[in-house]
Amino acid sequence: MKKEMKKILLFGLVFSINLLLSCSEMKEKKYKFDARPSVPDGYPAEAVFGGMVGEAHIDHGSYLESGWGRSGSIVVIGDGMHPLPDSIRVRFFSYIDNKFYHKESYPLPQERIKELLEMSYKDNTIGEYRYTTFQVSLAPGGWVTVWLSGGLGQIELLSFQADEAPDWSYEKAFPGRKSSREKFVEIRRSDMYSFVQQEIAENRIPYDYWKRLSKKYQWKLTTNDPGFEVYRYGSDFINIERRRSWTEPNWLTELNEKAIPKDLFFLLRHDKDPVRYKVHLYLVEPRDQNNKDQEGQTYREMTRTRCLMDLFDKFYAEAGDEEVSLMVEFNDSMTAAQVKLKTAAKEQVIDGCRVRGIWDSDSSRSGDW
After folding, report:
1. With 60 as the cut, is the pLDDT of residue 8 above it?
2. Which of 276, 265, 279 minimizes the C-alpha distance to 337?
3. Which residues, in sequence order, are bridge partners of residue 357?
4. Separation of alpha carbons 240 and 305, rounded Å
5. Pick from 335, 364, 341, 361: which is nearest to 283 by CA?
6. ∠108-109-113 over CA atoms, to 5°?
7. Which one, of 309, 302, 144, 300, lies nearest residue 212 by Cα?
8. Which of 9, 207, 261, 322 yields a CA-CA distance of 20 to 30 A from 287?
9. What is the pLDDT of residues 128-180, one digit of tens each?
């Protein structure tokens, strides 16, 4: 009995030492990354000094209007090397709500972050791809979503609710401004999109919209011909994730939790056909950078995204526990396709999708990768 007890104690001691050494190693090793804030297009905010991802400062002091999960460039001070972050602190002011929000410490999924920061992919043209930037998006109502992005894609890490900070001083948060808080908010709101101004006036800001973007569903990509194999892909999703086959070769065609896709781009080969195909489908029409009507494009994108979220919610509620495929159904000549949600018992065509093209991938080298 004593021998068994000694073994148990010895095992516990060894385990504890290994755990301490592992934690120490995680703290001592440094990684190159930065942290950048952003906001939904049309719903501006401003990051306040003191925001951090681990020991990396979240850029602050700029009027943010870049787009959900899409930050602009920043000035990095120092070598950009930091220990593995274990928590995030956010502080910001929403011009939509005329409120401050903060979360002084929120835990990050450290093991997942470590896995992503240590990933890399090398090609023969550009070089090495990595994850390098924490994207921190700040929504009205205090909703915060965090991604890790870089040349390998963009992965959503988590979302959380920040707290209101009613006692914070605008003058202390943004020293040196000549206008009062009321005047500054009035000026900023006068420049907002007209539909956002109307939402503010009618007290109907769509606070749940940004929460719904992150919802995941169990599905896998399939085609109507089981002889096809997806052997490469690069697809974007409404939660602003960008997934590439470089590090997850089978992820798109395996049954797992995914957000709703907005852009499907993949290469196909057939077990009985030597021709390989490059397929590009839009579930959400991409923005036209040459179109000056940015407000109209934002409104249309949000409207289309809401329709997709409603369609997925309704289909999954009716499907119950059935396995769901997102099927791309090609015509016989491989010149057109439609996208549908499908189970063994039911299916739903997703109207409004656009086929950008279906090409012979051996003769089409458009540089989309």
Report:
1. no
2. 279
3. 280
4. 12
5. 341
6. 105
7. 309
8. 207
9. 999 999 999 999 999 999 999 999 999 999 999 999 999 999 999 999 888 89
